Amino acid sequence: MIEAEVPLAARIRLAHAVVDALATEAAVDLLHLKGPAADPAWYPPHGGSDVDVLVRPSHLPALERRLLAAGWEQRGDYDDSSAWAHSAAWWHDRWGCLDLHRSWPGLDTDPEAAYDALARDHRSTLIAHRPCPTPRVEAEVLVLALHEGRSGPHRASTRHLRETWTAADPSLRAAVEALAHELGAEVGLAAGLGRLDDFRDHPDHDLWAVYSSGDANRWREWRARLRSARAHGVLGATLRRALRPTTPDGPADRGIAAVQTARAWHLVRDSLRRRP
Amino acid sequence: MRIAADVAWVDDERAAYVAKVPYGDPLVLEGSAAAVWRAIADGCADVDAIAARAAALTGADLTETVASDVRTFVQRLVAGGLVV
User: A69 to chain B: nearest residue by CA?
Assistant: First the structure.
């Protein structure tokens, strides 16, 4: 027996099992998503680099405490993860990166209710020979479609999902669409399936258009975020995020942060001028 | 004899990667060590059966020396809580 370097694919599977065991110890509900947790029929295996779990929001503090006690370190803030402030990155020197989700981008409903809906009738999937909770098929397809919808248009996994969707049983597609309706996720689902034009007038259209097109223009992204935030009544919080520099460490970073802040302020003024 | 319930493991055919979760270090089992692990995973319940299966998996002759080495290794797995 030797302690040696574990290949990434094996390490990710073991890390899923480690996080699941910590959650079990802490009586925390979670779902394993993507990567080895996903049904390969919908999400073919490819070179992922981290572990994705969705935690019942009310259980998040308990899991965070358990992770800290087990040597994990939080490396990112929820507010920095995306327009949805959905996840935080954690790191362990032995197990690598964990993407800890308190919500899933694109679900426009109370996060606790969204968790209940995704976890309803959940399955158990063996990961590293440990049974881990994973969503039932229609919830998994919705989760994967929302993920692809904000991941740019040219990924092999996006093409695979759309092809699988087209060939899927109509009753399954109807179940996914019904769940998307229940969770206010119709626009994100459409983005993942390549039919975002069906929602051209929706206030979230521009946001999903930015992410699903792979357009890295931060200016366009923030304009879309503000339009969406105004429609959802969270404009104030989004403006505060726009004004907050993200990398104020060294002198060069402080310069970048100053530029970011100036740009954000222009966005704020523009938004206020356009406010109905 | 079986793999402990709190053990996670991955076999990629080059090696078996094994850890007690959530607090154990990962171990890499290669060659004959991986063969022993696979024999246990296949359901071999005692040392003689494990040795025979491991010998078959590796193409080795099942000599007394091989059986003794397997017995020693299995004892280490049990002592480490990986096998019960």
Answer: B23
Side-chain half-sphere exposure of A32, counting CA atoms within 13 A: 30
Q: Say if residue A248's pLDDT is above 50.
A: no
Q: Which of A5, A12, A18 to mutate against chain B (most B CBs within 10 Å)? A: A18
Residue B55: inside a domain, yes or no?
yes
**A32 interfaces chain B, CB cutoff of 8 Å:** no
Pick the more confident residue, A84 or A99: A99
Q: Among all residues of chain B, which has the CA nearest to that of A66? A: B22
* Domains in chain B, number: 1
pLDDT in tens, A34-68: 999 999 999 988 768 899 999 999 999 999 999 99
Identity of the residue in A2, A18, A129 whose CB atom sits nearest the CB atom of B28: A2
Kindly tell me the burial class for residue A272, based on how many C-beta atoms sit within 10 Å of its own C-beta (0-12, 13-18, 19 or more).
exposed
Domain limits at B12?
Answer: 7-79
**pTM for the predicted model, two decimal places:** 0.84
As a whole number of angstroms, the distance between CA A57 and CA A111 comes to 7
Q: What is the 3-state secondary structure (H, E, C) of A53-85?
A: EEECHHHHHHHHHHHHHCCCEECCCHHHCCCCC
A129·B3 Cβ contact <8 A: yes
The ipTM is 0.95
Question: Dihedral angle at the C-alpha atoms of A74, A77, A83, A87, nearest 10 degrees?
Answer: 30
pLDDT > 50? residue A134? yes
* pLDDT for position A136: 98
Across the range A192-197, mean pLDDT stands at: 94
Residue B14 lies in a domain: yes
> Do B17 and A19 make contact, defined as CB atoms within 8 angstroms?
no
* Domain-embedded: residue B84: no
Closest residue of A to B8, CA-based?
Answer: A128
B46 is a domain residue: yes
Residue A136's nearest CA partner among A120, A147, A148 is A120
Whether the pLDDT of residue A126 is over 60: the answer is yes
Q: Give residue-wise pLDDT tens across range A214-225.
A: 766 776 676 766
List residues of chain B with CB under 8 Å from any CB of chain A.
3, 6-10, 12, 17, 19, 21-23, 25-30, 33, 76-77, 80
The C-alpha of A8 sits at a distance from chain B's nearest C-alpha, in angstroms, of: 11
